[in-house]
Amino acid sequence: MPEPPPAPLALDHPVLKSLLGAWALAACSPAEATAVEEHLGECGPCAEEALRLRDAVGLLHAEESLDLDPGLRTRVLESCLGRRPPRIPVPRWAVPYDAESARLDALFRDIGNSEWHAPVRLRWFEEGGQVSRKTTVAGVIGHLLAVDGMVAVALGLGDPLGPETKDPQLPAERTEAYWKASYFPPTRAVRGPWRDQTHELVRTVSFAGDGSGLMPVPYGTAPEGGEGAGQRIELPLRDAMVDRAFECWIHAADIADAVAYPYDPPSPRHLHRMIDLAARMLPGTLAGRRRSGLAAPSRDLVAAGAPGRSLRLEIEGLGGGEWFIPLDSPGATASAEREVAHVALDGVEFCRLAAGHIPPEEAAAGQDGDREAIRDVLFSAASLSRL
């Protein structure tokens, strides 16, 4: 087990300010470094000075790992993002993406050149079960760049696939197109365009303000022969940004596993937004599986807006809460009075299920009630995943 970080020293502002130069050079003692990092989350002028000093240090030598605690940059970022409000407020629904893309970029500062070619296996769930695709760390970032590009296009920004790209395309189609068009195998050079695009997305939605959250973001058209075949897939911008935060975290964890890097789940409030989005998408996914014959038909025909049978989804731990999932015909509302099943899952475990990283049969869930309804909802959760 790694040793916990030392308790911060009780130092006043002038002393902490005088330590910024040593901190930027990684020359502080562990206790001094902890005290400085705590202070940076509370003092805007010192945070700006620390960033300026770190940039100056970066000019003195090539960017490389200094053998620091691998979680150092992540802790500093989380502290600053959580305590220091930006000059232009980021909409609440875009904050998880801002935080997760920053955490992933911090990971890249600690890996070597060779690790960009480390093998990574992307996993998701299709109707026949779990499937996977092998790529590299750089290939994963190419995937994130290409799919985040759907949000960029919706906002009127440039498409990383180029202006001739057919619109809309499914995320998997965009990824394959990017991989084929880019240098193969992708190299660490993909980090620059990805990082620039993440900054531009956050900057654009921040200037647009909270009211832009209802803008539709096309995700392509569901292919023939699959769930919801031929249907146009769209998410409002506020949900699309949470979706991109979710995928950024999931693939960051894939990369961290590949390079043996410690990586924590998102903060509870960000994880809650991700879980809430998945729970709200479950009824539509369940309806699509029914149309494709992959789920049991609805037992009750309930008028639109009327209460019907429901499953209570209880998420425990980080980001937890309760959601009632309607089980009857489309348009029926969930009804606590007509609860026929109950599923309990850990928050991170539920997200791994929704990412297709664990089969629904193996989800560590507490289950009670209608077994058929439980199976259909767990499989629907896994069906939320995609390349």
Automatic annotation (TrEMBL):
<dbReference type="Pfam" id="PF13490">
    <property type="entry name" value="zf-HC2"/>
</dbReference>
<dbReference type="InterPro" id="IPR034660">
    <property type="entry name" value="DinB/YfiT-like"/>
</dbReference>
<dbReference type="InterPro" id="IPR027383">
    <property type="entry name" value="Znf_put"/>
</dbReference>
<protein>
    <submittedName>
        <fullName>MDMPI N domain containing protein</fullName>
    </submittedName>
</protein>
<feature type="domain" description="Putative zinc-finger">
    <location>
        <begin position="18"/>
        <end position="47"/>
    </location>
</feature>
<dbReference type="InterPro" id="IPR041916">
    <property type="entry name" value="Anti_sigma_zinc_sf"/>
</dbReference>
<keyword id="KW-0805">Transcription regulation</keyword>
<keyword id="KW-0804">Transcription</keyword>
